[in-house]
Design a protein that fits this description.
Chain lengths: 205, 205
DNA sequence: CCAGATTTTGTACAATTTGACACAAACGCA
DNA sequence: TGCGTTTGTGTCAAATTGTACAAAATCTGG
């Protein structure tokens, strides 16, 4: 047993580190320290060192971390050292925004299909994609072997869509609808609905 | 001292409870239990009881919680028993999606203005809004007294925009750009970038 | 209408998880 | 070589979650 169980909370911070490191690399930096990285992401240096050290000794005393090396390691750990196919359900405004989003490039993701149940939208072009019918979704996802989905459907349809996605073999759902989804334990869901996020802040105003 | 310091992590769960409760209310339910609510949101019943009891004794043994009463209380606690004005910076696809989003209604928020620095977009209509120039943003926000902003600008512009928002008196920022923002301690930021959210899940695939 | 069974809350206490602190060891540099 | 920097980690403190149960309310069956 070489690998101990890594807490979710640490995994959740890694993408933040990765994002900051990639930004540093874009700016031409070669090395950084836990101190500097911490200032960028608003997390204590000690915490960052401990998080990273869960996976190996990637730094060097006196010098810090090689940015490129750490990026490579984090991408490997998070399994984004490859490109994941992602399907998008819901061709509304938000669906359009995600379809055209260029931030997936170089971050390990690629949208491969868009579905909607509105017959008026089916067949429409969004960028290079043609909106497909949700009736054919299950088969299409299965045959493509896609494991990741993003849902931008109305709250009322979200659970039904999620059920279908799970049935099709999807294992990770990024849910933009304002509802909690009921899924099996081996399926991960991330929620990201604007109202909920705003409500997390108003308490402090 | 009647009110003890409530941990952030509890505050973060309240909007989730609220969302589920509002959904139950829409479906005509009158009461619920910590058990039932927990099943809906995927959190243990004990945890929910403990969270809620931080603010008072809102339930009744043997019966559970009155849904409407709990909604009212949570809205009050989260300060969404009113309507907050929100400004939107960035009139791209995502900006359009948020401007047209109807999930803010009944959740305590209302978009009141949209800004962009692209002179081609300034003056454009988005729904009932006219895109305004970021040059006039600082004054406009100040005069309207807006405290909440959503940013859908490119990563490269996000920090600069955030600085201006802080200067204009904004105290809460929902940031869709894939960068960590550096803001004073009294300003809250919530991050919500698709790639980062997806990367939080790939580890488990 | 009532007594016992059932439900469900709120909380005391225990266990676990998470974060802060401190420092020896390693490295670079002058 | 000696000094300043920075990592990785052991130890401790704090925060968070889980468990269990008394008390309160409702329900049920006669």
């Amino acid at each position: 047993m070489n690998v101990k169980k890594i807490p979710d909370i640490i995994i959740g911070r890694l993408p933040v580190y990765l994002r900051a490191l990639q930004r540093m690399a874009d700016n031409g930096a070669k090395t950084t320290s836990s101190q500097e990285l911490g200032e960028h992401v608003g997390i204590s240096a000690a915490q960052i060192r401990k998080d990273i050290s869960q996976f190996g000794e990637f730094g060097k005393q006196g010098t810090g971390y090689s940015i490129q090396f750490l990026i490579d390691k984090l991408r490997e750990i998070l399994k984004v050292d490859r490109v994941w196919d992602v399907v998008l359900i819901g061709a509304g405004d938000l669906g359009h925004a995600l379809a055209n989003y260029n931030g997936f490039q170089n971050r390990g993701f690629r949208v491969v299909a868009i579905f909607d149940n509105d017959k008026n939208k089916v067949g429409q072009k969004i960028g290079e994609f043609t909106v497909e019918d949700t009736d054919t979704m299950l088969e299409r996802i299965k045959s493509m072997g896609v494991k990741i989905a993003m849902t931008t459907v109305p709250a009322s349809a979200a659970q039904e869509v999620a059920d279908k996605l799970v049935q099709a073999g999807v294992r990770a759902i990024l849910n933009y609808a304002p509802v909690s989804l009921n899924v099996p334990e081996n399926v991960k869901v991330q929620y990201t609905d604007p109202s909920t996020n705003l409500q997390r802040m108003t308490y402090y105003l």
